[in-house]
Structure formats: structure tokens, C-alpha cells
């Protein structure tokens, strides 16, 4: 019996509560002044103590900086639905990166079961069932740059180049504000599903160290994460906060018995092997009482290795590589990566009555692609020699953003509170490049595993973006608040965008209130979506991407790319029926037109011709021509996403038996795909599989409920996660429908339960130890039939966004404060 069914009856009676709560010391420094993110703070105790998350009954009113430019706005009185997750909550999940922690804590956030190629390395997430590019990520309120590595393979995240949250040290996070509302009128492109704002620590004293070590129930995937955070005073006017972090995770293997060898020896499916080192700094210094110099930044180096599919001896012989690999081989893709982001700015108060903030942010990501334990079969056939290690090329992007933000409150006699007026401008320059690999990496069939980028694929692209916005907010009467925002953006490659937003909230009394928003939004096509091209061959198929604006794509019917546009509506209710019971209910609908998808699918002879037009030679592929396919990005459809978020929390005090903070949250979500575009030949640009990737791969609902019990030095946290059902259209790899682009296997993934459990003990005032497990019952996604998995290389439906295929993860965590 699964653990979910064992514990569910014990927990089902809990009051609904938010799965996350603000940290008591969020954003605080020792002076009790505002930190660089603008949060009001409370002075810390002078004695360092490491404890589990504080009881929600003791939490102060949390000032927020996301979704509002009113400096007095709090989470409890937010005009839009917003969730605050404390840094200690993230680190208490046993996860060593931000995304995996957020998946454990927020029902609105989901992730793929497992990606492929470089897409498996990137920490991409879905908010409210939309893809990662449709969620804007900020750090201390400033736009964060995206990764340069694109998700190539078919998946719900195909084509995305999102912000990689693994590049931000989890030890540096004070708290995260998740705005679950369209916010393009406030922040610009990408904020269709919402905004994730990572607020960095700003304490000016103390040293905190954490070590997490764990592994999976299968006996693999050992993971270790060590980090430290330290705060320092800069004289009497400033602070410096530093974080450093090391993480290593071993690869896992989640494949079946290979019929070619009779053994479970394919390492392609599972998490990649990753080693990461990160550093972060955050500082602020008051030059005068009214002017502050501030800055923050991160630098991360990551080495990742991803195993490609096994070339068994029979396959190796067919490719003519037996002389090089008589026992078969399995290529390994490598991706050394450097990622950085730095912000420097000045902000001040009372300049002719205005508060102002002038900043410049530069960030970038550089990925070097490699391959070892590989070969070029055609080069070997022609010359009797092939290298086993290849340089495949590189991806790079850079984003330089400059902002001026100005705000002032104006007292007007007919308004209950001052009219908060904010306005400003932004200039951004985006660049993206693809560098070609060494000649033998792309010669004819190219390197096995992942073919090198060709000179024809190489690109250097750039664009300029200019924007201006205005924002008004006030309380018209005591219980009625209204916010208005408008924004204009100009892209020199895709034109202009105008967006607006109106939000309102009315509190009938202290027990009940209502809120709602209506907004328009947009997402400009990324430079990667416009320019990316690649070709990949495996033993059984060959596939790849053709640049959307290339002659080859236009020959297949591509009209080029234009921005997505969206219309968002939400309505919510805030309930406080008891002193310690808080409930939020928010419904939403998100309509997206001209959604950018990986459509324009072509296979067989048409794909071969398109590759030839793009300068790619497919003659080296040893399989049948029918197994050759290609795609290009296109504005392929419109979608309507509707959903409901319910969150609440309640605190119980049992006296000498301790306190329990009950919590639960649920998200219901459904997406319909409509208005599918057609190619020049009249065929739909999306097939059934691509439609399901957008509409049914995300769980129809996700529920998190449980509680944290505290008594003396002991804490016990138990949470149950229920993932709703998903459905997939899987490709046949054998039989009469093998590699068909019209006939698919309809896979139904039933709901899954996962139990997370942690027991902690305060050994010393400065030392806290915890033993825990995520998915302690070792639940897995649904199994897939062998005729949808090449040589049983997939046991589970990896297109789904339910629970991870890795199974139970068990860990020991130690926190030390000095």
C-alpha cells in the first residue's frame, strides 16, 4: 500500500491552509530598516539560533514588493493573489535547488518528469499550467536573464529558454514572492502566468552553514549540497551579505531491460550528473541619509553530463563502428556552463518629494557543448578513424537592462489614502549566439548522441527594447482599493506592445473581502526561438529544429514569428472566519493568442528536403527515411487556461503538547487549445501530441496539505501531495504506427500521492539536525508500454508533469549558526 493512502485519512480533516508562509525575519537587517528590496524589517536577536520555520500565529504583517509599487502594501491586504515562501522553508525541503523546493511547496508550480539533452539540465518550471517562458523571474525586483540552452526535444517545455533557477544559490534566498496574476503591464514581456521574485538576504551579521546529503530509494543519485551565508556591517551605514554554495548530484538510471542485450544497461533516462559552484553577494550603503548605493550579483559554474541512448553491439555493427566499439557504446553529452548576473544602482528619497531608483543590470549565460565516448560513423567508414570526443559548439546570451523608477504619494482631499503615483522607463539589449562545432562533429551524420552545430546554424542576433510605464494606486474609501497600470514597449525586431491592468479589492469587514483583476499581456518571441537550429540522430530516429525565419522553414510554410498576446481575468475572495484561520480563493482565466509552439512538423522526404535547404546532410542516418523529422517555431494556436487556487492556514496550540501549524493549498487547472494555424499546404501545424503537450500534460489539479508540530526541541513536518491525472499522446516506436505523426498511443496517468516527512531536533541553540524524506513511499509515475519506448529506454511517461520518476529521496540536513 502506498504511503499516501496510509497517511491521507489522518490528514484529510485538516483545515485548508496555505502551503507556504512568510518567514518572521524576512529581509531583515540588524538595524530594522528597509532592505534593498524595499521590505520593512524587524531587528534580529543578537544570539544566533537555528530553528525550524516559526509558527504562523507569531508572524508579523509581511510587506511585499511584487505586483505593487505601493511601499505600504502587505501580503494580507494584497490586491492580487500572492504567495510568500520563506528561505528557511525552501532549505527545509531537503532540496538543493530552488525549483525542486518550490515544487514541494506550491500547488501552482509543476515541472516535467524528466527532460532530454540540455533541456534536462535547466531548472524550468510551469506556473498555472503555462510554460516556463510565460513566467517572469525577478531578483530583488530586477529582471533576471534567461538561459542560453534551449529545450530541444518534444515536451511541455519544448522551445523554452527560461530563467534557470538552479543558477541562484538557495542559501542566498531570504524569501520568494510568487505573484499569481498577469503582470505584463507592470513588468513587461513574459509575465503572462505571473511573476517569481527572489528576494536576497540582507542581514549584516552572523554566519549560517548548511549541509544536505541524500539519495534515492533505488540506491543511486547521491546528492550533496553544502552552503554558507554570512553578513557583515559596512561601517554604520551599510551591509554586505555573502553566500557560497557547492552541489553535486550523481546520475540516476530509470530504464528497463534492453531487448538487444538482455540487460538493464541503458543510462539515457534519469537525472543527469551535475556539479555546481555558486557565489552571491548583496550589499547596500547609505551615501547620505537620503541616497543609497546598492548592488547584488551571482556567478555560477556548472558541469553537467547527460548520457545518450545506448548503441548496442548490433547497432554499432550496423553503423560500421564495431572496429572502434566492439561491445557497443553510449555517448555522453557534456555542458560546462558559466552564468552571471550583476546589478548596481542608486536609490533615494525626498528628491522634490519623489522616491527614485536608477539601476543597471547585466546578466548572461554561456554553454559549451561537448560529447565523449562517441564517434562519427561516416568519418570512420571513409578513413578508418574517428575521434571519440567532440566539441559540438556553444550557446550564449546576454541581457543588459537599465531602469529608472520614480514614485510619489499625493494627498487628495477626495481620496481616503494618498494617491501613489509611479512611473519609469526601461532600456534593454538582448543578444544571442550559436557557435559552430568542430568539422567532424557535424560532417555527414556527425557525432553520435548530439550532432555538432554547423556553420549554417551559427548565428549572432541582437535586439533593442525600450519601455515606459505608469502606475496609480489608492484607497478610494476606507475599504476599497484600486490599482491601475499601463505600459508601452518597443522591440526593434517584432514591433510595439501596449498593455494595461486594473485591480481592485473591497473588504466588507475584517472577516471577508473580495478582489479582482483584468489585464492584457504579451510575450515577445525570444531570440533563440527565432534563430535556433540543430540536428540530432539516434539509432532509431533523426530529428531537429529549423530556424523559424530561415528559407528552409519558409519553404515548409513558416510565416515568421510575432509576439504572443494575452488577456487575464481573475476574481478572488479573502476569508478570515476565525482569529487564526485565513483562507484565500482565487479563480482565473488566461487567454493567449498567437501562442508560440514547436509546430510546422514535417517528416520523411519533406523533412530531408528541408534539412538539405538548411545545409544539413542527413544521408549518414542509418535508419529509414520515415524516421527523419523536423520542426520550426510558429504562432501555432490560441489557448484558454482556466483554474482555481484555494489556500488557507490555521494554527493550533495544545499547551504542553506543542503547537501545530496546519496548512493546505490546491490548484485546479485546465487548458483548451483552439484556433490552430495551418501550413501553406493547409495542414494543421500541430498534431495531437503537440496539442496534448500544452493541454493535458500538466496535472488537472495539485493538492498539498499537512502540518508542522513543534514541541520543545522537536519538530515534525508531514505533508501530502496529490497530483491529479494527466494524459499523453506517445509516439509508437514499433508496429504498424511506428513513428507516425498522426497516430499516437493515448496514455492516461492516474492521480499519484506523495508523502513528505521530516523530523528535526534542536541539538544546541546553534545546531539543528533533521532527517527527512520526500516521497517516502517511493511512488512513481505511470508505466508506459514497451512499444512507445525505444528498447525500453523509458519506464515512465516522461512527458507528464506529475511527480518525478526518480522515486523516494531521503536526506540528512544539518544547520549551524555562529
UniProtKB/TrEMBL annotation:
What's the family?
Belongs to the TonB-dependent receptor family.
Q: What is the protein's membrane topology class?
A: Multi-pass membrane protein
Question: Which InterPro entries does the annotation name?
Answer: Beta-barrel_TonB (IPR000531), Beta-barrel_TonB_sf (IPR036942), Plug_dom (IPR012910), Plug_dom_sf (IPR037066), TonB-dep_rcpt-like (IPR039426)
Q: What is its main location?
A: membrane
Q: Where in the cell is it found?
A: Cell outer membrane
Top-level taxon of the source organism: Bacteria
Domain TonB-dependent receptor plug spans what residues? Answer: 78-195
Protein name stated in the entry: TonB-dependent receptor
Q: Which Gene3D superfamilies match?
A: TonB-dependent receptor, beta-barrel domain, TonB-dependent receptor, plug domain
* Keywords carried by this UniProt record: Cell outer membrane, Membrane, Signal, TonB box, Transmembrane, Transmembrane beta strand, Transport
Question: Where is the signal peptide, in residue numbers?
Answer: 1-21
Pfam families per record: Plug, TonB_dep_Rec_b-barrel
Where the record annotates domain TonB-dependent receptor-like beta-barrel, the positions are 295-776
- Is Membrane included in the keywords of this UniProt record? yes
